[in-house]
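For the sake of transparency, this paper describes our internal protein records without simplification. The tokens are whole numbers drawn from a learned vocabulary of local backbone shapes. One such record is reproduced below, unchanged from the form in which we store it.

. . .
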Amino acid sequence: MKKFAHHAIFSGWVFVTFLVPGLAQAREEISIDRSNLTRENEAVQGKTLEDIHALHARWFRDVLSGTTQQTVARFVNELKLARQNNLKFLANVLPARQTTTMAT
């Protein structure tokens, strides 16, 4: 009986070893790198994100550069559209230049 138990455990371990790589491959996700979409108007953003979703991508990457009200509004719109298209969003946030001088 003890020999049978060892054989069953070893067989199960071998089975799981071959099964795990297959499971890892099944979880791969398609991604799209679309930089500077925040510089485009709402129509272009919407069409681009719909096309990314149509390609069965699960997430996409974009760059946020700038801190003007218009840039931030476009970025927020992009996040909203990504959510509507069931996409994960990876944002690279770049440092912004300080455009105003500080009074001393």
